[in-house]
Amino acid sequence: MNDISVFHLARIKLPIEKNRLLLLLVGVNFIFTGLDVALAHAVNDYVPAYEWIPIFFAPLAAATSMIVALKSKPDRGLMLVHIAVMILGVFVGVLGTAFHANQALNPLGQLTWIWVTFASPILAPLAFAGISLVGLYGVIEEVDGQPGLLNVPGIGTFKAPISRDRHFLWLVGLGFAASALTSIIDHGQYGYTLYKLIPIVFGLFATSVVLTLAVSKEWTDADELTYFWTMIGAIIVGVLGFAFHLSGDLADTGQFSLERILVFAPVLAPLLYCDLGILGLIVVGGGTNTAADAS
After folding, report:
1. Rounded distance, CA 62 to CA 294, Å?
2. Nearest CA to 131 among 209, 269, 31, 237?
3. How many domains does the chain have?
4. Is position 292 within any domain?
5. Cβ of 95: how many Cβ atoms within 10 Å?
6. What pLDDT was estimated at residue 275?
7. How far apart are CA 169 and CA 156, in angstroms?
8. pLDDT digit string, tens, across residues 215-249
């Protein structure tokens, strides 16, 4: 049994190691992100053909992540395949962002607010890049006592300017930033109500909290406490957002409408805040193996 200690504030017992837990989280994320994209692209009947790229990629990435996570000692070939798929995922995210940005241009080739708000969400494909980077760092180990010296299985050792844990913090912080910007754009379609401002304000706040820790040389007790409760808050905001979106899609009728789910309020989108909150708690957790300690 493994313990993950979130600073000195909480300790959670888990059946697997921290890295394998991260990979399982990555696999689940690819499954739900792929489902979300499949529903979103169904609006255009998957035309142009490149709209199939993330749909085919998601199950492949989920498979390699989960297989590696479920093996206590994955072989070199499997690790190399997983690393290659994660690197491909970064390109899929960047390429998707370029396609979405191109669709946001008006007929004159200009980028205007009204076209941006009603076009395909520009930043949404970056989810593939972010999840892939977490999946990549999930199999990279840091050499003991040498922060920033990263060992990539089957490839070699590389020196990074910051530690592996701070890489994770940057990913979480930038994830909140992208989520906040996406909320600003998507909620701008029909105007900002009070509850629509919640993910925007909270997302910007969470971004500042996480990135402050990412760049700080030392963390105070107040920093850690603020970070911890911000991650808990992110989970709550995600659940509330899911409830609001679901209520909007039901349109007070109590009946599901696939059309409204596809074009009105995507029910899975707010859960990204839950995801970032959970990831944020895991990445700052220090792991200890209680079985080894007992022996």
Report:
1. 34
2. 31
3. 1
4. no
5. 16
6. 95
7. 23
8. 998 999 999 999 999 999 999 999 999 988 888 77
Q: Read off φ and ψ for residue 75, nearest 5 degrees.
A: -75, 170
CB 228 within 8 A of CB 9: yes
DSSP 143: P
Q: Helices 194-215 and 271-283, interaxial angle, to 10°?
A: 20
Q: Domain span at residue 266?
A: 2-286
Rounded to an integer, what distance in angstroms lies between the CA atom of residue 272 and that of residue 178?
10
Q: How far apart are CA 206 and CA 134, in angstroms?
A: 19
Instruction: Give me the phi and psi of 286, to 5 degrees please.
Output: -95, 125
Quote the tokens at residue 201. Answer: 């304000």
What DSSP state is assigned to residue 148? T
Q: How far is CA 276 from CA 16, 71, 132, 238, in A?
A: 20, 25, 14, 9
Residue 246 within a domain: yes
Residue from 167, 177, 180 nearest 214 by CA: 167
Residues 116-127: pLDDT tens digits?
Answer: 888 788 899 999
pLDDT at 144: 83
pTM of the model: 0.88
The answer to whether residue 293 is domain-embedded is no
Q: Contact 3/290 with Cβ under 8 angstroms? A: yes
Helix (H) or strand (E) holding 177: helix 164-187
| Strand, helix or coil for residue 157 | strand
Q: Is residue 294 part of a domain?
A: no
